[in-house]
Amino acid sequence: MRATAFSPASVGNVGVGFDILGHVVEGAGDRATVRLTGDGRVRVLAVRGAVADLPLEAERNTGGRALLSMLKHAPAGTGFELELDKGIALGSGMGGSAASAVAAVVAANALLARPLGMAELYDAAMDGEAAASGSRHGDNVAPMLLGGLVIAPSHGAPVRVPVPDWLHVALVHPHFVLETRRARAALAGSYELHGFVEQSEGLALVLAGCYGKDAALIRRGLRDVLVEPRRAPLIPGFAGVQRAALDAGALGASISGAGPSVFAWCESRATAERAAAAMAAAFGAVDLAADTFVARVDGPAARVESLG
User: Fold this and answer.
1) CB of 10 within 8 A of CB of 99?
2) 143-162 burial, b for 16+ CB within 10 Å, e for fewer?
3) Nearest alpha-carbon partner for 107 in 84, 123, 130
4) What distance in Å separates the CA atoms of residue 134 and residue 272, rounded to the nearest whole number?
5) Which residues, listed in sequence order, are joined to residue 3 by a DSSP beta bridge?
6) Closest by alpha carbon to 223, among 241, 193, 199?
7) Following DSSP, what letter does each residue of 238-297 receive, concatenated?
8) Which end of the chain is less enclosed by CB atoms within 10 A, N or C?
């Protein structure tokens, strides 16, 4: 038995929700093909596509480690063989490591006689994400599993947040690599309590705006005062890119995941397209080419493409 699954890219953190909030971005993603075996082992046979030099050792590969975690819940003797086709560059801030883990567990789950529940899949995918980032966090894997905008708790199943149909994202990926571990290292040090209060206020306003379909609340809340100031210096031209998005009419703009990609939330697709073009031009001003994506925030989850 063999299954192939696709996982979309994502925006982690969404500015105000460090490690606990994320949403999918349709248009880019990873594919995983998994074959069911009976030897109780996990083998990573190949990695192709945008990134081909990833480790084939299962414990060090995000997809492989996620499948190893799944074995804890599968019948004795269950094994998997994995092939990955990467459509997301690593170090891009688009959830590339998470997409491999999620595509792998979704494909593998389709092969089990008793499929795992969402909480178990989420846990396994977070284990896989940790192989690349060094920590278990679900703000990328959770939206990939559920679709749309999702709250990613440290324990238990993730929670999907309803968002307005008109809410779109402009995501711009400069051709520049920023490793997640380096971006996390930039966050070391102390923080003032008032910063946490202000960030919590922003998160609350954004969530209230999503539930209430209120653009004004989202605009008020979508400001990262904790993480963005420490990571922005790692991204060439970030201030100009953010300003370009806001000048184009975006509700807010910040760093996608660990960066260097930058996202902007907008009230319509037309505004998002204008913002994406302006942001790409701003990266161009610092001699960085960039790829642009425009999509609904309420995008689709990872899915099985073939089974047989």
Assistant:
1) yes
2) bbbbbbbbbbeeeebbebbe
3) 84
4) 33
5) 34, 307
6) 199
7) HHHHHHHHHHTT-SEEEE-TTSS-EEEEESSHHHHHHHHHHHHHHHHTTT--EEEEEEES
8) C
Q: b/e for 206-231, b at 16 or more Cβ within 10 A?
A: bbebbeeeebebbbbbbbbbbbbebb
Is the pLDDT score of 247 beyond 80?
Answer: yes
Q: Which tokens hold the place of 241?
A: 């890119």
- One-letter identity of residue 228: E
Tokens 């990573």 locate to 44
Q: What is the DSSP track for 69-114?
A: HHTTTSPTT-EEEEEEEE-S-TTSSS-HHHHHHHHHHHHHHTT-SS
Determine the Cα–Cα distance for residues 233 and 227; give it in Å rounded to an integer. Answer: 11
Torsion sign across C-alpha atoms 286, 54, 130, 25: positive
Torsions phi, psi of 229, nearest 5? -60, -30
Other C-beta atoms lying within 10 Å of the C-beta of residue 105: 33
- What is the pTM (predicted TM-score) of this model? 0.94
Distance from chain centroid for Cα 207:
18
What domains lie within the chain, and their CATH numbers? Answer: 2-155 (3.30.230.10), 168-296 (3.30.70.890)
Hunting for tokens 């942001």 — which residue is that? 279
Q: For residue range 4-63, list pLDDT tens digits in order.
A: 999 999 999 999 999 999 999 999 999 999 999 999 999 999 999 987 788 999 999 999
Q: Which residues pair with 172 in a beta bridge?
A: 262, 292
Strands 290-296 and 168-174: antiparallel
The predicted-structure confidence for 75-95, as pLDDT tens digits, reads as follows 999 999 999 999 998 889 999
pLDDT of residue 51: 79
Cis bond before residue 75 (omega within 30° of 0): no
